[in-house]
Amino acid sequence: MELTPGANMGYLAALSLVGGRRGGVMAAARVATAFAIALAVALIAATELEPHIDVGSQILQAIGSLYFLWLAVDTWRAGNRALNRRTRRTCCSHAPSCAACSPIW
């Protein structure tokens, strides 16, 4: 339940130090109960809202796809700019077969 450091782990550690083993176990039980309640509320909300969010999820999916496409184009352009800078520095006219001038590279 508590594998990563965070507010819940600090809470459990503090109560374990103050209240001993019993205090730590009680705190862990309270945190587990809170997690279970939050999970139940999220599941109920998701099942109740699911028929109403079909269009919204499609719009969100399209926006996400466009964002990833934009990231790919931006990364491609940045890579080309970096390659052009590196090619200008390493290539020379008497060695056209160097690795940096290769059309495959």
Classify the helix fraction into a percent range.
over 70%
Please summarize the sheet with the most strands. none
Distance between the termini: 48 Å
Tell me, rounded to a whole number, the average pLDDT. 76
Identify the notable features of this structure and list them briefly.
2 helices, single chain, mainly alpha, 105 residues
Protein architecture, described:
The protein has 105 residues and is mainly α. The chain has a domain at 7-77. The protein has helices spanning 7-49, 54-90.
Structure summary:
The protein has 105 residues and is mainly α. The chain has two helices and no strands.
Element layout with pairings:
Layout: H1 7-49, H2 54-90
